[in-house]
Design a protein that fits this description.
Layout lengths: L8 E3 L12 E3 L2 E3 L3 H22 L7 E4 L5 E7 L18 H5 L2 E8 L5 H9 E4 L2 E7 H8 L2 E6 L9 H7 L4 E4 L9 E2 L4 H10 L6 E6 L22 H27 L3 E7 L4 E3 L7 E3 L11 E5 L5 E9 L3 H9 L1 E3 L41
Parallel strand pairs: 5-12, 5-13, 6-17, 9-10, 9-12
Antiparallel strand pairs: 1-3, 2-11, 4-18, 6-16, 7-8, 13-16, 14-15
Length: 379
C-alpha cells in the first residue's frame, strides 16, 4: 500500500545492547516515506559505512616521543549545547549545577568552543589539521591508542546521519565502542543515564593498560523537554528555558554519578567535562523566546572542568582557553608527548590563549552579545 502514495505510520525501534525498556522513555511515531526514500537512506548508510571503514583502516601517522600517564583511568565527557552562563557554577541565580560547584577540581572560566555546532566544533578539536585539511586517521583516539591506552567510546548520540557520522568515524578507532542508537541522534530517545551501566561494566574490567573512556551525551540538545527524565520543576521565563535549565541540572547529576563510580572503583583517575558548543537566543524580546544554534559570543562560551582523584580543593581558573588548542592540551592531560603537538600546552595553566576567528573568519570579539534572559521573578 505504500506504492499508492498513502503515507503510513511506522513505530521506530532501535535494538542493540542498550535496548532496555527501563531506559527508553519515549518511542516516537514517524511518517513512513515511500520505498524510494528507504532506498535513498539505505544507500546513504552504506556509503557512509564504507567511508567509515576506510577511515578506520587508514594507519595514523603520530610520532609519539614519550608516554607518562599520571592516572590509571581518564574520562573525557563530551557535553551538548550547554551555555556556561545558564549554570549556577558560573553564577546563574538558580541552582542547577550543585555537584560541579562543590567538587574538588578546576573550573575554567574562560573556555571558548571551536565551533557553533557539534560536528564543526568536535572535528576542529579532535582531528589533526594539516594544510587546512582534516587528517581523520590522526585523531584523539588513535593518539591515545598509539601511546598505549585501551580506549572505550560510549555514546548516546547517533552513528549514521548527516551530523553524526563524522564523529562516529572517530569513535570507530576505539578498542571498544558502544552506541545507544543505530541511526541518527533523533532515531530514538534515551536518557543519558542509559550509559551508566555500560560505563560501570567497562570500568570493572581488568586490564594492565591505562584506560581512556570517552563518553558522548545528549545533554542539553534541542527539544529540551525530551531530554528530561522528570517533569519540569523550574519556573523561569517560559517552559522552554525552564526545561533547558533542568537539562543542565540533569547533566550535573550524570557527572556526579560518573564521579562516584570512579571513586568506588578505587583507581586513580582524571575526568574532564566540556560542552561542544552553546546556543543563541531566538526572539529574545518575546516571552516565547527559545535557544538555538547560533553565532553570539555566548554560543561559544561553554563549561570546561577537570576533576582529578587527588584534587584537594575547588578552583576557578580565570584564564582564556580556546577549543582550537584542544589536541595539544589533551595530549598533555594524558601524559603524551607527540612531535607535532605543543608539549607545554596545559588546560590548567593561567596562560591565556588568543581566541581565534570562527565561522566565515568572523573575529570572536565582533560577535553580538547575547546575555541570559532575565526573569523578573529571579532578579
Amino acid at each position: 500500500w505504500l506504492n499508492t502514495g498513502v503515507i503510513g505510520i511506522l513505530l521506530v525501534f532501535s535494538y542493540n545492547q542498550f535496548s532496555d525498556w527501563n531506559y527508553a522513555y519515549k518511542f516516537r511515531f514517524y511518517p513512513v516515506l515511500f520505498y524510494s526514500e528507504f532506498d535513498r537512506m539505505n544507500d546513504l548508510y552504506l556509503e557512509q559505512r564504507d567511508f567509515l571503514n576506510q577511515s578506520v583502516n587508514t594507519p595514523s601517522q603520530w610520532d609519539i616521543q614519550s608516554f607518562t600517564p599520571k592516572y590509571k583511568n581518564y574520562i573525557l565527557i563530551i557535553g551538548e549545547s550547554m551555555r556556561k552562563d545558564y549554570m549556577s557554577l558560573y553564577g546563574f541565580p538558580l541552582e542547577n549545577s550543585t555537584f560541579l560547584k562543590n567538587v574538588k577540581g578546576t573550573v575554567i572560566e574562560g573556555y571558548t568552543a571551536a565551533g557553533a555546532n557539534t560536528t564543526t566544533a568536535l572535528l576542529r578539536m579532535f582531528l589533526q589539521i594539516k594544510n587546512n585539511d582534516f587528517v581523520y586517521a590522526n585523531n584523539i583516539v588513535s593518539l591515545a591508542k598509539e601511546a598505549g591506552f585501551e580506549v572505550y567510546w560510549l555514546s548516546n548520540q547517533g552513528t549514521v546521519g548527516e551530523y553524526d557520522t563524522p564523529i562516529a568515524k572517530i569513535a570507530a578507532f576505539s578498542n571498544h565502542y558502544d552506541f545507544t542508537k543505530t541511526g541518527d541522534y533523533s532515531s530514538i530517545n534515551y536518557f543519558d543515564t542509559v550509559l551508566l551501566p555500560t560505563f560501570e561494566k567497562r570500568l570493572m574490567e581488568k586490564t594492565s593498560k591505562n584506560r581512556l573512556f570517552i563518553i558522548h551525551i545528549m545533554g542539553s540538545h534541542e527539544y529540551f523537554e525530551d531530554r528530561l527524565s522528570n517533569a519540569i520543576h523550574y519556573n523561569y521565563y517560559n517552559r522552554i528555558i525552564s526545561a533547558y535549565l533542568q537539562t543542565i541540572e540533569q547533566t550535573d547529576d550524570f557527572l556526579k554519578q560518573i564521579y562516584e563510580k570512579l571513586q568506588q572503583q578505587g583507581e586513580p583517575f582524571s575526568m574532564i567535562y566540556f560542552s561542544d558548543h552553546g546556543l543563541a537566543t531566538k526572539e529574545r524580546e518575546s516571552k516565547n523566546a527559545w535557544l538555538v544554534h547560533g553565532y553570539s559570543k555566548e554560543a561559544f562560551e561553554t563549561p570546561f572542568i577537570q576533576i582529578n582523584s587527588d584534587d584537594t580543593e575547588h578552583k576557578m581558573l580565570k584564564g582564556q582557553k580556546s577549543g582550537f588548542h584542544f589536541l595539544s592540551g589533551y595530549a598533555h592531560w594524558l601524559g603524551i608527548r607527540e612531535k607535532s603537538l605543543n608539549p607545554d600546552y596545559d588546560f590548567l595553566s593561567d596562560k591565556n590563549d588568543i581566541i581565534e576567528e570562527f565561522n566565515q573568519y568572523v573575529p570572536f570579539d565582533t560577535l553580538e552579545e547575547d546575555p541570559i534572559l532575565i526573569d523578573k521573578k529571579h532578579r
